[in-house]
């Protein structure tokens, strides 16, 4: 991990904590940006790199748990909560809503760094998955209208003859469309195409008829 391929955001209203965390991260070769309020963090322009959000519970403008709820569903960094007023209900709520860890002050540097590394690794994986999904969506948009009709029939398990009859085209024409779909979707096999269709949530409305030829 290099200092330019990640970022750690710190949101804590205690300047001493912000400085201590920034120095700790710097000593580990990690880049950090600190904010004293949730509002400052939300409004800030953020680098588009894998990240972690170290978030205090008690903030001057909003509770950290409430901020977690507000940004849920968005592409936000995994959260590591830190607090001097930890309790079981808060920790359960935080973890239930996806926090990587919930650390009560004073916590060890080792525990914090382990949580940060886990959060950045998680964000890196999610970004990779989103990038792959975006690529699949672009590939799907490259299909012709007819090829988009062929795709769900192919992945449903229908034989070429059955799929051709469903669309009212010849089997040879169906095979041409099927080959084009495989190439444009960069599918190495039928199983791969099925996985892609599942990722794209393409509705499958047909199933292979028993005894079909």
From TrEMBL:
SUPFAM superfamilies, A to Z: C-terminal effector domain of the bipartite response regulators, CheY-like
One term of GO molecular function: DNA binding
4-aspartylphosphate: residues bearing it: 56
GO biological process terms, semicolon-separated: phosphorelay signal transduction system; regulation of DNA-templated transcription
SMART domains from the UniProt entry: HTH_LUXR, REC
UniProt domain HTH luxR-type: residue ranges: 136-201
PANTHER family: DNA-BINDING TRANSCRIPTIONAL ACTIVATOR DEVR_DOSR
Name the UniProt record assigns to this protein: Response regulator
Organism per entry: Rhizobium ruizarguesonis
């Amino acid at each position: 991990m290099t200092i330019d391929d990640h970022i750690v955001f710190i949101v804590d209203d205690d300047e001493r904590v912000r400085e201590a965390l920034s120095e700790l991260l710097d000593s580990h070769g990690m880049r950090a940006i600190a904010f004293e309020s949730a509002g400052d963090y939300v409004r800030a322009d953020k680098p588009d790199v894998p990240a972690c959000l170290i978030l205090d519970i008690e903030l001057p403008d909003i509770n950290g748990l409430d901020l977690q709820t507000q940004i849920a569903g968005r592409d936000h960094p995994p959260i590591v909560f830190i607090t001097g007023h930890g309790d079981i209900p808060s920790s359960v709520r935080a973890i239930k809503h996806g926090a990587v860890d919930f650390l009560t002050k004073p916590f060890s540097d080792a525990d914090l760094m382990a949580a940060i590394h886990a959060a950045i690794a998680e964000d890196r994986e999610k970004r990779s998955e989103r990038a792959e999904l975006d690529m699949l969506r672009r590939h799907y948009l490259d299909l012709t209208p007819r090829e988009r009709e062929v795709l769900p029939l192919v992945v449903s398990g229908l034989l070429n003859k059955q799929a051709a009859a469903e669309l009212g085209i010849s089997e040879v024409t169906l095979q041409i469309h099927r080959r084009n779909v495989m190439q444009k979707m960069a599918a190495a096999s039928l199983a791969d195409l099925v996985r892609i269709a599942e990722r794209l949530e393409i509705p499958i409305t047909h199933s292979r008829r028993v005894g079909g030829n």
